[in-house]
Design a protein that fits this description.
The strands form 4 sheets. The chain has a 7-stranded mixed β-sheet, with helices on both faces. Strands 3-2-1-4-5-6 form a 6-stranded mixed β-sheet. By secondary structure, the chain is an alpha/beta fold. The protein folds into 2 domains: 254 residues, Ribokinase (UDP-N-acetylmuramoyl-L-alanine:D-glutamate ligase); 185 residues, Class II aldolase/adducin N-terminal domain (L-fuculose-1-phosphate Aldolase, 3-Layer(aba) Sandwich), CATH 3.40.225.10. Its EC number is 2.7.1.49.
């Protein structure tokens, strides 16, 4: 087997398993690299508090560094909790002339509030570690501490980044998770360049313990795999966002992101294809269903849990068609990425209503609209006149914009279960029916058929 990139984490141990060395090694492994570690401190902590810290001697930390670097090829490294000035100096002795990129996460305080960096260590970090960092990744409170200023807006971000860059790092990523905003924006700044906002959807969760560790470890892994800095950061952001969306309660306090989320998502793909295949067979035998098939090719899309884009959405390669005799035929087979139009519409719907995982496009006429009303389906209407000129009809761009805009404009966006489009030049009027799963979709289709003017029953 080809050698995996070696990623070294130099950080503290979290007995609760959510941050520090534990989070780093989970992240590194999940993203396809080999993790080695130098433990700078032992913490007694859980999801609620840090109840104790025990640091090894600086000499033993140096012994770990020396032993690892003598034998294991390191392609990138990161630092986390360094705790004391003495340990910082022990670690920094190995940084001059290093042959690998270094990500420095200047950890000061745990999510639970426990202090992880001694006050006298702040100056040591700036003097001994910052000059060797290829990337510095402070959150807002840490950036305020090291830059000796308050950060309240974008202009403050730029000034703080300038101050931090003057301390020696090659680039700075100021993490904006602590700022009040609809999205989570991190600011990437390189010397001589303006700050670049890197935006991700904000995830409302209490399980955010170890997010900084996870992000910096993911960035280091990307750098060790040969990615450019900006690409490594974007990939790390997506990984963390997925892990946050897939988080679950571990204890009574702030739990960690779910570091195994990509594996669980990949495992779900086989089951998703099988459920889509069964749903297709059910549609072919559903009485009255052919009356809902539009002139354009219909398709049914089904998303895996925590779907990010159209590649996480399965559909039928040839779509669903109705013959002149009213027979419904499934053309092709279930496959991920099979229908970019329906898939992008479904992903857009999930940004507003995360519980939704299925979408099917139906004929839209007076009879179908009235059936939606009788069935009590919350309907959002697309206002085509609001569409920006840069949105093309091709490649699913229209579906992505139309579904998201219509649902966002509805009084209760998460409740929407049908998006109606009146059509336009080159576009047939359609209903995009949404459901939480295949069983929910079948029930909604049966209700529509039952409530339609033909009264065929299901």
């Amino acid at each position: 087997m080809k050698r995996l990139p070696g990623i070294l984490t130099i950080a503290g141990s979290d007995s609760g398993g959510g941050a520090g060395i534990q989070a780093d090694l989970k992240t590194i492994t999940m993203l396809g690299a080999y993790g080695a570690s130098v433990v700078t401190a032992l913490t007694a902590q859980n999801t609620c508090a840090v109840t104790g810290i025990h640091a090894p001697s600086p000499e033993f930390v140096a012994r770990q560094m020396e032993t690892v670097l003598k034998d294991i090829s390191v392609d990138a490294a990161k630092t986390g909790m360094l705790f004391s000035a003495e340990i910082i100096e022990a670690v920094s002795g190995f940084l001059p002339g290093k042959a690998f990129p270094l990500v420095v996460d200047p950890v000061c305080v745990a999510q639970s509030g426990g202090k992880l960096l001694k006050p006298e260590a702040v100056e040591a970090m700036v003097r001994h570690v910052f000059p060797h960092a290829d990337l510095l990744t402070p959150n807002i409170p840490e950036a305020e501490l090291f830059a000796s200023m308050q950060i309240e807006n974008q202009e403050d971000i730029a000034r703080a980044a300038e101050k931090l860059l003057a301390m020696g790092p090659g680039a700075v990523l100021i993490k904006g998770g602590h700022m009040e905003s609809v999205t989570a924006t991190d600011w990437f700044v390189e010397k001589g360049h303006k700050p670049i906002p890197l935006i991700q959807p904000r995830v409302e969760t209490k399980n955010n313990h170890g997010t900084g560790c996870t992000l910096s470890a993911a960035i280091a892994t990307g750098l060790g795999q040969g990615l450019e800095m900006a690409k490594a950061i974007r990939n790390a952001q997506r990984y963390l966002n997925l892990a946050l969306r897939a988080g679950f309660d571990v204890g009574q306090g702030s739990g960690p992101p779910n570091h195994l989320a990509p594996m669980f998502k990949e495992r779900a793909k086989k089951d998703t294809l099988e459920r889509l295949d069964r749903a297709g067979r059910r549609l072919m035998s559903m009485s009255g269903f052919s009356s809902l098939v539009p002139e354009v090719r219909m398709n049914l899309a089904l998303a895996v849990p925590f779907a990010d884009d159209e590649n996480d959405v399965a559909a039928f390669t040839g779509g669903i068609v109705s013959t002149r005799r009213g027979d419904v035929t499934i053309a092709g087979y279930p496959c991920f990425g099979a229908s970019v139009h329906v898939a992008k519409g479904l992903v857009a719907a999930r940004r507003v209503a995360p519980a939704v995982s299925a979408m099917i496009n139906l004929r839209q006429d007076k009879d179908v609209v009235e059936a939606l009303e009788r069935a009590g389906v919350p309907v959002a209407w697309v206002d085509g006149e609001k569409c920006p000129p840069y949105v093309a009809v091709a490649d699913g761009a229209w579906e992505e914009w139309a579904v998201y805009d219509a649902m966002q404009s509805y009084e209760a966006p998460e409740a929407v279960r049908a998006v109606c489009d009146r059509g336009g030049p080159g576009r047939e009027p359609l209903v995009r029916l949404l459901a939480e799963d295949c069983a929910d979709l079948m029930a909604r289709l049966c209700a529509l058929i039952d409530c339609s003017g033909s009264r065929n029953g299901c």
